[in-house]
Amino acid sequence: MRTMPAKRTFAKRLWVQRYLMILTLPAVLWIIVFNYIPMYGIIIAFKEYTPFQGFLHSQWTGLANFRELFTDPTFKDSLSNTFKISIYKLVLGFPPPIILALLLNELVFKRFKRIVQSLTYLPYFVSWVLVVGFMYTLFDPETGVLSRLLMKLGVIGSDTMLMGDTHSFLTLVVATEIWKNIGWNSIIYLAAIAGIDPQLYEAGVVDGANRFQRVWYITLPALKPTIIILLILSIGGLVNSNFDQMYLMQNSMTQDAANVLAVYSYKMGLVSGRFSYGTAVGLFQSIVAFVLMYAANYSSRKLTKESLF
Q1: Is-contact 117 183, C-beta < 8 A?
Q2: Low pLDDT (below 70) residues in the chain
Q3: What is the pLDDT of residue 291?
Q4: Residues forming a β-bridge with 60
Q5: Which of 153, 260, 288, 293 is most buried, by the most CB atoms less than 10 A from its CB?
Q6: Do the Cβ atoms of 184 and 124 come closer than 8 Å?
Q7: What angle do CA 187, 245, 223 make, to 5 degrees?
Q8: Residues whose CB is less than 8 angstroms from the CB of residue 301 and which lie 6 or more positions away in sequence, other chains included
Q9: Contact 162, 139 (CB under 8 A)
């Protein structure tokens, strides 16, 4: 039996899928131009970069930037803040989109379902500039509606400024992150639920399973691969805090709690003009993110047989 050469097989598949390839071409070019070509700039993490000498002619310094990085107490504080905030976001923010998707899937009234979906998707499209601006207005200790309500309920004192309190800062960061992304993140789970074979639910009804049992024994097991893939990606992003949110929510009273790696890299690289040092911070973030994602993927493959790669 004659087998077709691999190159010929690949060319034939490429020709059959030519229209799909053309559709994906802009995305591939975008990734190459904005993600892979700029990686050339990583070399300045090992140099004392000056714009006048350029990438190639700046002086090599080896690992000097990294040695300074690991002895800088501000870097250690920003690393600790990053992990603390990201872990809280992961633990408290990962389940709500799954629960929302399950609840939306159980809604019988389609019109009400569309209204709820639209209301939960809407915050995702609001910029962090507007969100933080509203927060300062709502939590103003003298005129803020939510602050005055919490004071009347006895939750906070009359002199409490929530946006300037380091203890309430973490709660506000996690709560706003969940509120803004819960609807958008539930879309993937709703799409996965839509792909479940309806005959499974019909079989469940015949066997006498109630709605909760159908969710528990049919929907959640079908969602398991999607949940694991998104969890692996979330673990990989533990060192990549939301720069916009953290930078905008910080003020003179909370800047120590808000100083995460992304903000630290920005301040050192662009504000202070230490481009090489800022790049070293960014490179450290990328390496740690890769290690975390690889470890999560490996653990998932061993424990659940599900993995990203």
Answers
A1: yes
A2: 1-8
A3: 94
A4: 47
A5: 260
A6: yes
A7: 20
A8: 307
A9: yes
